[in-house]
Design a protein that fits this description.
The structure holds 2 protein chains of 2 kinds. Chain A is an alpha/beta fold. Chain A folds into 2 domains: 41 residues; 127 residues, Glutaredoxin (3-Layer(aba) Sandwich). In chain A, strands 5-4-3-6-7 form a 5-stranded mixed beta sheet. The longest helix of chain A is centred in the N-terminal third of the chain and has 38 residues. The relative contact order of chain A is 0.16. By secondary structure, chain B is an alpha/beta fold. Chain B has a 5-stranded parallel beta sheet. In chain B, helix 4 packs across helix 5. Chain B is globular. The N and C termini of chain B lie far apart (57 Å). Chains A and B meet through helix 1, helix 2 and helix 4 of A and helix 3 and helix 6 of B.
Chain lengths: 185, 162
């Protein structure tokens, strides 16, 4: 290999190194941007609630599609979330009171440890299905990046309201009642 | 008129204070292990941490998430490591193991953001553990509501994955 060929080879290698570096930086930047976009487009308000199928703590299938015709209150919670635990007894009361008028509450635990979630589920005597969630389900619902998070889904499967963080429960109740059968009762 | 302005400032003061951290520094009166037990001087605002992480050549802290793994997998601070929930013995053990070999002056930033600051069960115990171990340069990211509202929704960079 003569001097010209060696120089040419070095220039080519340097160019390749520079383009690889540029591509890597671009990929990192694009990755960050894509992540931001995914979360920016996260609001599901007035959109169809993303479908999912899980198995609840009683080994029954929880298929969101199967609840079409009912008003669904989808609540993401965890055992380490104090505000979540304040909400759940009220949800139990709503399930008893409004269940006959078409309300179905579904709980999704975002705990890392299913045993802890099951234990609280039993302690609070939750009267609605509860299944374990994960990051995929969280991302499907626009990112569950702090709890509690609750979605109000109408009988056609459209998201009518979403509540992120501590929420005055009377606000949720006022919003869900008109969606039920016999709303004036 | 002057009295009205003073009254307005007094009324609005807590709102401005909340944007920076807890309204006053209640760390001396707070129960040990609660988020309020962390002195205000140790708190780092999201914007300040983001600027620190973006600055070229700056002394970058070791960023540790001490909350939920499911939340971490959805989004976390780029370069941040998951160590486990500070409210549980396993999480504290994992934190201890991660920092055991580090010099006590290592710049460490802890964060959680699982739920509102005043309800966070993880951040206080994790901070106390590092203090007990002798770490002298520990800051805590102040997330008033949660990681989604105070970091992701503000447009600060995130990574996904476990």
């Amino acid at each position: 290999m003569d001097a010209d060929q060696t120089t040419g080879m070095r220039m080519w290698q340097n160019a390749l190194r520079r383009s690889t570096l540029t591509c890597s930086l671009l990929a990192i930047c694009l990755g960050a941007i894509v992540t931001q976009m995914a979360f920016a487009a996260g609001s599901l308000l007035h959109k169809k609630a993303p479908e999912f199928v899980r198995t609840d703590f009683n080994h029954r299938t929880v298929d969101l599609n199967a609840y079409r015709g009912k008003v669904v209150l989808l609540n993401f919670w965890a055992t380490w979330c104090a505000p979540c635990q304040l909400e759940m007894p009220r949800f139990v009361a709503w399930q008893s009171k409004y269940g006959p008028r078409g309300l179905q509450i579904i709980g999704i635990s975002m705990d890392d440890d299913p045993a802890a979630a099951r234990s609280l589920y039993e302690k609070l005597k939750l009267n609605y299905p509860v299944a374990m969630g994960d990051e995929k389900l969280g991302e499907l619902y626009g990112g569950v990046l702090g709890l509690p998070v609750t979605f109000l889904i109408d009988s056609h499967g459209q998201v009518r309201a979403e509540y992120r963080g501590e929420t005055e429960l009377n606000t949720i109740e006022r919003r869900l009642k008109p969606l039920l059968l016999h709303p004036s009762r | 008129m002057r009295l009205g302005i003073v009254a307005m400032l007094v009324t609005l003061a807590p709102f401005f204070a909340h944007a920076q951290g807890p309204a006053s520094d209640p760390s001396s009166a707070a129960p040990p292990g609660s988020a309020f037990s962390i002195p205000q001087a140790q708190l780092l605002q999201p914007d300040a941490l983001n600027r620190l992480l973006q600055a070229a050549g700056a002394d970058k802290p070791l960023v540790l998430q001490v909350g939920s793994h499911v939340l971490y997998a959805q989004a976390h601070i780029p370069g941040g490591e998951y160590v486990g929930p500070g409210s549980q013995p396993a999480g504290l053990q994992s934190l201890q193991s991660r920092v055991a070999s580090l010099p006590h002056k290592t710049f460490i930033v802890l964060y959680c953001g699982c739920c509102p600051w005043n309800h966070c069960p993880n951040i206080g115990p994790a901070f106390t553990k590092l203090k007990e171990m002798g770490f002298t340069n520990v800051k805590v990211l102040y997330l008033a509501d949660n990681f989604g509202a105070n970091w992701v929704d503000k447009g600060y960079p995130v990574e996904q994955g476990r």
